Amino acid sequence: MARMYPRELPRHVLENPKLSSEVRVYERMRDKLPGDYNCYYSRSWHEADRDGAEFDGEADFIVAHAEHGLLFLEVKGGRVSCREADGQWLSEDRDGFKFRIKNPLSQARSSKHHFLKRLNASRALSGRFVRARHGAILPGSARPRRALAPDAPLEIIAFGDDMETLDRWIVRRMTEGDDHRESALGLDGLRALEELLASHFELRAHIGISLADDARTIERLTAEQSWILDSLADNKEMAISGGAGSGKTVLAVEKATRSAADGRRTLLTCYNAPLAAHLRTICQGNEGLVVASFHALCRALAQKAGVELPSDGDQSVFDHLLPEALVDAVSNNPDLGFDTVIIDEGQDFRDSWLHALRLTINDPETGGFYVFYDDNQRLFSPEKGFIDALPASSIALTRNLRNTRRIHALMAKWYQGRRSIPAGPEGEPVGTMACRNGEMALARLNERISQMLNSGQVAPGQIAVLSGTGDALTALGERIAGKPTCRADDVRPDHIVLDTVRRFKGLSRPCIFLIGIEGLTDPELIYVATSRANVLLEIIGTAEDIARLKQEVAAAGP
């Protein structure tokens, strides 16, 4: 059996009655020609001449043999004829309808010249004058007694009479004639032809297009979550749980802006300073809405109320003295209190901090207290008593809206909470760059980001480079791929964010690059690291560390 390209005909070809003759020829070649023949079906081509004129063509079949060379064939079904008046070729079907068709021999000859030119241009034939023939197959027509035209002698055309022995006709067509100038195609010629006609390729996705398409989908899905807030309207206290990317922050912001719009003095707070900076940016212009990280809030209100605080101190200042100062400040000056308190990333808060925030509510009867938190059981949370005591929302945030499905599949390996359902677009595969050492990792990072920026696929503000160690941040300095960098709490639209995974908690970017992954050993940090990217996530490090993050068997790196 001959080696066929494609190995099997696609359904749309098999089910098209207009292509039945080509299917019949394909099957004859496949079943009758020896195994050292390669047969290519339906190979289109495009060519432009020196004047800029463009030409398109298609070779129905190209037969190749290492010793016998090439044969280009055009197939025309039906009963074929040619009008004497204008030389127009025609094909008549079984119902008597006639159709104009192109001269099959001219088509085959054009394909022959085109592909020989392509092979010579690639220098694959090393200047050889390769044996090449052309011909036509007319399976619906009987063999006539004389040549069809000066350029259509009977010996270069196979008719219906020849179909049962088509393999012998093809071999004869490829071997007849003797020209001492002609050379064999050779194994190298066969390889070059296969590369030209049947080579597989897979292009790297244009991230700019993916970003735009996937971002629109994620934005639409996230907007659909707002109806959940209606279910909270009659609940003065509520704990709302969900994994990374489930829309907790979006809902927290929406709840805060609605509350402020109703004339209620509202607090939106979180633990992480970079997240607080992000929340302040998106909440600008909302009168009556205070946005601050928890410890910054404690200091600010203490200063306003005249409560003394140490300028610095050990961990006890953050754990105890600042929360106590917050309570004292509101007690001394009730105007500093709130009608509604909304906490994002509540799993980061100690019970005593949450209790202090509840005490800032002016009127317990009418005040609102809402905690949005991640229910991942792998997260380090020494205290959960306060959140567990709050009325739980009857609607859990179980759909992941922020990440593509492929990113979700990776982060889900580090998630042990209520089942998270991916609702976003499929997205690109999680990229990996295996490197032997940190120096090579930084070089590969710069090269990859340069390629994306220079090709216009992304803007600097869409990228964040996150590290599991501080050493990698120091090594990268103030520029990546020639672009300035900024920290997560001082984001600028024309800068690339460069920060640690820990400080980026609660935030996201369309494109995330993870470096220094040898420092990502805590399951909490791995969960955070793998869930920050909306559309593109690429991991750079040793093959062993990459495999550990992906929970796969390590492959050998370069």
Automatic annotation (TrEMBL):
Domain of life: Bacteria
Domain NERD: 21-122
TM helices/strands, residue ranges: none
Coiled-coil region: none
Annotated Gene3D superfamilies: P-loop containing nucleotide triphosphate hydrolases
InterPro entries: DNA_helicase_UvrD/REP, NERD, P-loop_NTPase
Protein name: NERD domain-containing protein
Organism listed in the record: Albidovulum sediminicola
